[in-house]
Amino acid sequence: MLDMLSGETRIFVIIGHPIAQVKSPAGITRGFVERGINAALIPIHVLPEDVDGFIAALGPVLNVDGIVVTIPHKFAARQHCTTLSDRARLLDSANVLRRGKDRAWHGDMLDGVGFVRAMRQAGGEPEGKRTLLIGAGGAGSAIGLQLLDSGVEELAIHDMDAGRRDALVARLASAHPGRVRAGSTDPTGFGIIANATPMGMRPDDPLPVEVEKLAPSMFIGDVITAPEVSPLLEAGRRLGCKTQTGVNMFLAQRELIVDFLEGKPV
Question: What is the pTM of this model?
Fold first, then answer.
């Protein structure tokens, strides 16, 4: 891949805080190379208080064509978009931005599509299932919407920030009335458990749900990529649960991201 780098290389950046855990730079750059596109994705570590200034500073940089956005910048990135997909508009957040011909940003939110695609690849099916979602941030919002769009019977949402949880319940209920409510850390009775928080990245993190109440019939998905098999997934696998890792989610989403950044419909 180094042989292709030149002054003609188109630049895409991925921004986050932290950034060291992301798998996207190599995977998406490889996706460009496989399509014969002279482009690379570069990781940039940006603090929340600096993200608006950073995105604004990219305005006059003529060889930067897109941004991939990770935690915690997805809501901030959306504010820089002139146009949005329907799902990004509903969620008021974006995890991918690309330049239009007028150099303005167009945003979309692909985390939920990637999560459900990875879930199906791992043998899980959302249709008709009661689902517990942990985390009402950018990724959780997108995952919740896509699970509802994919036919889950009920979505219960838990977040340590009750205000953020209630805001997401109201937002998703506006599109799917009668199927969304507040939840807790108790997974009893649910068919799908989705962790959309960073809990599990650090050795001293608490578990996102009460794992002693997990059952073998549950499907468990996690968004974190390091460690690839989180403590929650380890607990589920010991019981025989089907599981999906954050790496699975990224791999399922990678082609969608490259399509979007290339300007194709997703």
Answer: 0.89
Q: At residue 56, what is the residue type?
A: A
Buried b (16+ CB within 10 A) or exposed e, 52-77: eebbeebeeeeebbbbbbbbbbbbbb
pLDDT(190) > 80: yes
130-162 residue pLDDT tens:
999 999 998 999 999 999 999 999 999 999 999
Annotation marks residue 213 as catalytic: no
Residue 101 burial (10 A CB sphere; 0-12, 13-18, 19+): exposed
To 10 degrees, what angle do helices 246-262 and 24-34 make?
A: 50
- Which residue is listed with tokens 């990770």? 70
Q: Among residues 74, 101, 213, 242, which one is catalytic?
A: 74
In a 10 Å sphere around its CB, with 0-12 CB exposed, 13-18 middle and 19+ buried, how is residue 207 labelled? middle
Q: Are 100 and 107 in contact (CB under 8 A)?
A: no
Q: Cβ atoms within 10 A of the Cβ of 1, count?
A: 10
Q: Considering the chain, what is the average pLDDT of its residues? A: 95
| CA 120 to centroid of chain Cα atoms | 16
> CA 116 to CA 99: how far, in whole Å?
27
Residue with tokens 């991939």: 68
N-terminal to C-terminal alpha carbon distance within the chain = 26
Rounded CA-CA distance 110/250 in Å is: 10
DSSP 109-121: --HHHHHHHHHHH
Pick the closest to residue 223 from 162, 152, 135 (CA basis): 135
